[in-house]
Each structure stands twice: as C-alpha cells, then as structure tokens.
Amino acid sequence: MAEGKYSTEISLVWTVDDIDTMLEDNALKAMPEFTEQEKAHVLHEVYTHHDANCGVTWSDLLYWTNELYGDRLQKEM
What we know:
mainly alpha; two-stranded antiparallel sheet; 8% strand
C-alpha cells in the first residue's frame, strides 16, 4: 500500500461460524448442537468480558462456550 493510503481504522470480526471452528479444533461436540442464538450468546459474553489489552482469542471462545454450555460438550473420539 502506498504511503498515505492506510486505513484510519481496523476491525476484526468473529462470527458464529468461529464457534463451530473452535469446537472442531478442540475435538468437541455439543449435544444437542448449538443453535445460532446460543452461539450468538457466546459471542456476546466474549465481547462483554474481553480484555481490550489482549483482544479476543480462540481460548476466549472456548472459555465462554464452556462456561455457558459446558454440560452439553462432549469430547469426540
């Protein structure tokens, strides 16, 4: 990018699809599967409680998924 053409703002976006990716990457499965609303609830809690000094990480998604719905998580074999 040429000098003077940098954006004056940035935005990083996490979506409900990232909840699915996090579960898959950690070999976890929700029983029954999470609804879009439940995944949106996880994103809401991540956003509400995130540390602006650290940003949002995959660990945050895992933590809040477990906090809210840990009783429904099963390790995949």
